[in-house]
Amino acid sequence: MKSKKLYYTLMSILMGFVVGAIILIAIGINPLLAYKEMILGAFGQPKYISWTIVEAVPIILTGIAVAFAFNTGVFNIGAEGQFIVGALVAALIGVNVTLPPVIHALVCIAAAILAGGIWGGLVGLFKAKRGVNEVISCIMLNWIAFYFSNYMLTKPFLRKPDSNYSFDIQDSASIRILGEWKRSEAGREILKEMDLLRNLLNPPVHWGILIAILVAIIAWYILKKTTLGYQLKAVGFNRYAAEYGGINISKNIITSMAISGAIAGLAGGINVLGVSENIGLLASQQGYGFNGIAVSLIAVNNPLACIPAGILFAGLNYGGGKLNSRLNTPSEIINILIGVIVLFIAMPKLLEIIRNFGSKKKGGEMND
After folding, report:
1. Contacts of 354 (CB under 8 A, 6+ apart)
2. I need a labelling partner for 153 at 20 to 30 A (CA). Which of 16, 31, 180, 191 fits?
3. Cβ-based neighbours of 168, under 8 Å, separated by 6 or more
4. What is the DSSP secondary-structure string of 245-257?
5. What is the pLDDT along the chain (368 residues), one digit of tens a residue?
6. Could you tell me the sign of the dihedral formed by the alpha carbons of 194, 197, 200, 204, in that order?
């Protein structure tokens, strides 16, 4: 079963690149050259690698959030809203509360987790107690989070005067690696002399990638090795059989969505504390939660596989963004490529037909 899932994933990625190559040829671009530029643009220099990892962290976490819910039979399309409330709460505490370094960051992260957990738990509560479809409630709560975040930015204790952004979080709340040191005179002098270190640290590199790896391991462990994980998956596989076995269905649905929402809220908090260090007025949904759905599908809903899937997704986006300037190629080709990958992953029957056709052809040649 695991080898079959891996086959589907690798075949889907390959098909995505094949379709992307066909489109590139159609518009007069050499696909090999375009893919080379894309790879070099994401991993060709130390600073590119750092930026790719920075961009991967939030979608790895939202991917884990979606994957966790999927494994328990719930479709969490609300990771976007949970991300927004996590970012908002982290910014509120990062700006307005004064605490010692490390402790301040930990409090902000804990608050983001709690906010996302409550936001996700509401979806589970509506489904468990009133039978509301989680897709509907997730979409509604996404927009509520969106407008609530913009409303909070009208408050003078959060919004910077004559700006569409909040005040920056205090330095004590930052989770950037060597953040204060890089801003110091001694740090600037050392970085001037060390090109490799400067290229690695100039992007807003932060501790989020280690947190994301830890969260992936914990989520995998909960689902695979604990009684809670067994109960959550049992409800997802067959809620009636689970109820017959004595499992509290309502409690487990709420728990599943709360954990999933907490992970997405953590993603929002880390993005504020490690990258933007503020929040701004939102003109549209940011897309982190929806990109997390794609990452989860590429990872076949495996929390651990969300790590390489998120790095792949971020690499395609970041490296693909350079195609326009370097080859005069529309960067939208990356969205098409990712969309095709997700499309094929969602069509396992077609990939099974392709696999069987290849097996039969190989068998026929051997008989001949």
Report:
1. 11
2. 180
3. 95, 277, 278
4. TT--HHHHHHHHH
5. 566 677 777 888 888 888 888 888 888 888 888 888 888 888 888 888 888 999 999 999 999 999 999 988 888 899 999 999 999 999 999 999 999 988 999 999 999 999 999 999 999 999 988 888 889 999 999 999 999 999 999 999 888 888 888 899 998 898 887 666 555 555 555 656 565 555 566 677 888 899 999 999 999 999 998 988 888 888 877 777 777 777 888 888 899 999 999 999 999 999 999 888 899 888 778 888 888 988 998 888 899 999 999 998 898 888 887 777 777 777 778 888 888 888 877 776 666 666 665 555 555 555 55
6. negative
Per-residue CA distances from 12 to 193, 321, 341 (Å): 45, 22, 5
Residue pair 85/149 in contact (Cβ under 8 Å)? The answer is yes
Yes or no: say if 70 and 296 are a contact pair by the CB < 8 Å rule.
yes
Q: Which residue has the tokens 């930052």?
A: 174
Q: Give the chain's length.
A: 368
Contacts of 89-92 with C-beta under 8 Å, sequence gap 24+, read 89/114, 89/115, 89/265, 89/269, 90/169, 90/173, 90/268, 90/269, 90/272, 90/273, 91/158, 91/166, 91/169, 91/272, 91/278, 91/279, 92/152, 92/158
Q: Which residues pair with 165 in a beta bridge?
A: 280
Which of 205, 213, 226, 230 shows the shortest CA–CA distance to 305?
Answer: 213
8 Å CB contact between 289 and 264: yes
Structure tokens at 299: 């990872």
Instruction: Tell me which amino acid residue 344 is.
Output: F
CA torsion sign for 301, 307, 308, 314 is: positive
Burial of 187 (0-12, 13-18, 19+ CB in 10 A): middle
Structure tokens at 310: 């998120």
How many whole angstroms separate alpha carbon 36 and alpha carbon 30? 10
Closest CA to 87 of 134, 139, 153: 153
Question: At 280, is the secondary structure helix, strand, or coil?
Answer: strand
Q: Which amino acid is at 357?
A: F
Amino acid letter for position 181:
W
CB 84 within 8 A of CB 264: no
CA pair distance 143, 158, nearest whole angstrom: 21
